[in-house]
Amino acid sequence: MKVLHVYKTFAPDDFTGVPRVIHSIAKSLSTCCDNTVLTLADQPAASQPLEVDGYHLYQVKRAGKLYSTDLSISIFGDFRRRAAEADVVHFHHPWPLMDLMQLASCSQTPSVITYHSDIVRQRLLKPIYAPIMHAFLLQADALVATSPNYLKSSPILQRYRQKASVIPIGIAARDAPDVSLVRHWKSKVGEGFFLFIGTFRYYKGLRYLIEAARLNGLRVVIVGSGDVGSLGRNLPDNVTVLGPVSEVDKEALLTLSAAFVFPSHLRSEAFGVALLEAARAGKPMISCEIGTGTSFVNVDGLTGIVVPPANPDALSAAMVQLAGVPGLAAKMGAAAIERYRSHFSEDGMSSKYLQIYQRLAASA
């Protein structure tokens, strides 16, 4: 069965969020599906396609952006050809140009849309884009939300609830980090700290975490890429900013941490894969209630604590509670790893998508 995945960006330009989900699905289904990813790139590889972990990657030159929407004219022809060759097209929303590609091609290939997120910020674009988006969503044969929370809270998804299903994002299991690597990081940052991992974006709520650390004096380690200056000046002494680190380094830091803090305060944080990584490591979590998948991964009172968004006092109190109540962090961490195993495995996610692919292909 040939499956074509379509999204605006992919590795090496971007390997966070949606690209990582696509990679997980394509890699884990490589033995039963011929998977191809069609995407844009700033510098496409000279030799096409690229072979990546058992699937194919086609890159088309990115022409620029308009209202944060990645643009290309040449991808329309590439999409038309690839879609005609596929048994199923798997779209990953949002990307407005993708909607136009599908509608302009008049493709008859069965399609599924994974609805990763609403478009949150682009108010000027929404009135123009809305009719196109709804035409695109209407023509899809299947629609998938990544959590029941997002399906319930998204006004767009509510209009298509009858044909929408939920497939949570899943990630692969990991071996314990090397002991020498853990020892290396322990010598640098110690242990028992509160850890954040993620990109320094506007919706991550890091200023509230830093203020919470200033209030309670507990140690915080911040890991990620982006503008360090956006974190503000005169960081408190109990906050350490490491910048980006490797995947194995992340696992070592998670091992050393007492808990994971994820202060994202806006709906642009549609799921929070970093929370899955913390749950997989058996760490209790602190996150904010923003009506998205973050509160599906981190269940308040079970796997961690959920607080109101943009509220450093509430964040601080949750951190103090986890640090001060004997046995609470260990209890919630044990529940977190169990929830990861039962709800968020990579194989579980991929097998559910395979069922959709098989159903759609059989009905064509």
Automatic annotation (TrEMBL):
Keywords: Transferase. InterPro entries: Glyco_trans_1 (IPR001296), Glyco_trans_4-like_N (IPR028098). Gene3D superfamilies: Glycogen Phosphorylase B. It comes from the Bacteria. GO terms for molecular function: glycosyltransferase activity. Residues 187-338 form the Glycosyl transferase family domain. Residues 17-171 form the Glycosyltransferase subfamily 4-like N-terminal domain. SUPFAM superfamilies: UDP-Glycosyltransferase/glycogen phosphorylase (SSF53756). This is Glycosyltransferase. It comes from Devosia aurantiaca.
